[in-house]
Each structure stands twice: as C-alpha cells, then as structure tokens.
Write a structure and sequence with these properties.
With 379 residues, the chain is α+β, with helices and mostly antiparallel strands. It contains ten helices and 18 strands.
Length: 379
C-alpha cells in the first residue's frame, strides 16, 4: 500500500500540462482504484488540437458508477500549467524541510494523492452510499473537461468537494472568471502624414484609461467575505501596429475580470459598450469590437452548509473564500453544496516554488477517510 508521499511523487513524475493527453494520469488513478475494487468509467473527448482527453468517474465496491445520482463527490482536475524549461526539478519531486516540491504538487496532484491514499486505507464495507470520485481534464484552460462532463449528464451530485490548494481551509465561496478580447480600429497611413490616418493605439489608450476609471467604481459594490471585496479588472496583454513608421490601424487587448458572486456576468461588457458610446461624443468614427472568450460566474455556498460545518470541525479551520478560478462555479449550478478544499497554498503554484506541506497531505487523508465513511461509522 503506497503512502500519500509515494502517490504524489509518482503523479508528479508524469508530465501532464494541458497540451498533452491526460491518459497517463488517468491510467495511474485507475490502477490504484481497481486495486481497491472500485469500478471506473471513462469519458473520452478530443480537444481543439485533436488531443485525446479523458474524464473519469469512479464508485466504491457495490455501488454503480453508471448511476448519475451521487450524495458526495470528490473531484479534481488532472492537468497542470506548463512548466518553464529552466525548472529542472519540475517532474523530479523531492522533500525538503517538510515540503514536497514539484509541478502540480499542490495544484492539484496533492489532492489526488490524498484521495487515492484514503480510498486504499478504508475498509471497503464502510464507504458511504452515493460516494463518487470524478477526475477531469483541461481545468487549467477553461474547465473544458468539467463542461463536457456536466453536459453528458453522467453525474448529478448533491454535495461536492473540489480539490484545490486552500491550506486545508474549506472554501465556501469564490469569484468568477471572465475574459474578453477587445479590438479597436483606426486607419493606416504613413507616419510622415498623420493627418491621413487615425491611430488605433491612441484610441485604445483612451479606452483603456476609461476602463481603469470604471474599475475604480466597482470598489463600491462589495462582498466583504472576499479580499479584495469587489470585482477586479485587469488588462494583461495589448498588441497593435505593424511598423514604427505606420499609423496603426488596429490595436487589441485582453480584459479580464473576476466578478463577486451574484454580479451579472454581462455587467462589465455592458459597461465597456457604454464607454465606447461616450468616446464617440468626441470621436464620432470610434469603433471597437468586444468578444467574450470566457464567462464564468462566482459561487457561494451557505455559511450553515452541513458539509462546510463538517470540514470546519474536522480541521479546526474556519471557512474562507478563494480569489482564483476553479470548477466550483460549474458544479454549483447542479449541486446543493460545493466546497473547495485541499492541501497546499495556491501562492506557490504555477511557479518553480510549487510545493505542499507533507503534514497537510497526511491530515487531508484523515479528513477524506472520515468524509468517505458511512454516517454510522462516523458516529
């Protein structure tokens, strides 16, 4: 029987950025699950590049994986972000000062290692009825696997524990994640004759400054369970022009916003359209296009949720909110209670500093074992 550190080390050694098939990770999990007499079902699809991706559903001995209705689902993704070529130990895990380092160690192979360890250590006769494990593909590139899974109708959960690094605090709320591509148009001309053209970059600059001012207004609408307590905006990339001596005819930038739960998903695009209308007061030919690339709402589970209170009592840690994206908003659309939970700190993730405390891994295994057991056993 493998320890949680052994499971996690093995998982880290399997490269799994979103650009690759996640089959090797799924195969590893299936092998561990079958050894525990769990049954599994694969849902296969291909991504936009034609790469095979797999979602996995699993059920304990004596329970049917084909039954969509589930009382409690443990869920996590199987992909990681790409790791830098200079990170030589990305897939060579090691432990130092009580921390296990490696790509995906906390986001979220640590959670998967804990689940597999907990399953192996529990008497198969004591699993609660309606328990399921769900592994998804392509979370890091837009929760694509989870969207495929929910559209299939293969799982209909009551309560869900989604694996993400929260330092073992149960997270009951999270902001949404939205992204739009905005293109501003001008007219090209030789830069020696600027009167013959209109600079798309200058126009975009005025739009960007107006969006920044709009972002300041959002500070007034707060949900104090978050930090920061309001919807945030960011313009992370901008490109424009073709040469130093050409008046640019086109400029594009990406606008990202993270809405607090309950905010209308179209509030920011609507505001941008309003800003564009205002700019036409002084520039009648001003033209821009906005294309929404991703639009995911936030989520918020009630503070008196039974699942939340159970995990708070187990860990002795109070509930928190999370500022990063996850699959939770998607699951919150079908489940009554959704909690994000797992070992590690997201502030180390997506970097060569990524690590997870070994003691948190071991504590998470104990929590999962307790949650997975039938109520009579828990008493």
């Amino acid at each position: 029987m493998k320890t949680v550190v052994e499971h996690l080390s093995n998982l880290i050694r399997i490269p799994s950025p979103s650009s690759l098939s996640n089959r090797p990770i799924i195969d590893y999990a299936v092998d561990a699950l079958h050894r525990a007499q769990w049954t599994t079902q694969r849902m296969v699809y291909r991504d936009a590049a034609g790469v095979e991706k797999i979602n996995l559903l699993a059920a304990p001995p004596g329970q049917s994986v084909d039954k969509p209705e589930a009382e409690l689902v443990f869920m996590c993704h199987t992909d990681t972000v790409p790791y830098a070529a200079g990170w030589t130990e990305a897939i060579e895990p090691f432990v130092a000062d009580g921390l296990l380092y490696g790509c995906g160690s906390c986001d979220v192979k640590g959670f998967l290692a804990c689940v597999l360890t907990a399953i192996a250590e529990i008497d198969s006769s004591t699993f609660m009825e309606g328990l399921r494990l769900v592994l998804t593909a392509d979370e890091e590139v837009g929760c694509v696997g989870a969207k495929h899974l929910l559209a299939s109708g293969l799982i209909k959960p009551e309560r869900v524990v989604i694996g993400e690094p929260t330092s073992l605090h149960p997270a009951r709320a999270g902001k949404g994640y939205c992204l739009a591509e905005i293109t501003v148009f001008g007219h090209e001309a030789h830069s020696a004759h600027p009167q013959q053209g209109i600079s798309a970059i200058y126009r975009a600059a005025r739009l960007v400054l107006a969006i920044e001012e709009f972002g300041v207004q959002l500070v007034g609408e707060k949900n104090n369970f978050f930090n920061p307590a309001y919807t945030t905006l960011n313009i992370g990339t901008i490109q424009g022009g073709t040469a130093k001596n050409i008046i640019p005819g086109r400029c594009s930038f990406q606008l990202e916003w993270r809405p607090i739960p309950g905010e209308a998903l179209d509030a920011v695009p609507t505001a941008v359209y309003g800003i564009a209308d205002a700019l036409r007061d002084t520039d009648p030919d001003f033209r821009c296009e906005l294309k929404v690339v991703r639009q995911q709402a936030g989520f918020e589970t009630r503070a008196d949720s039974k699942l939340l209170k159970t995990i708070e009592a187990m860990t002795g840690r109070p509930a928190i909110s999370i500022p990063f994206g996850s699959e939770a908003p998607l699951l919150a659309s079908v489940a009554k209670e959704v909690i994000v939970f797992g070992p590690g700190d997201m502030r180390t993730a997506h970097s060569s500093r990524e690590c997870v405390p070994v003691d948190e891994l071991e504590e998470a295994v104990l929590c999962m074992k307790s949650l997975m057991r039938a109520p009579a056993v828990n008493r």
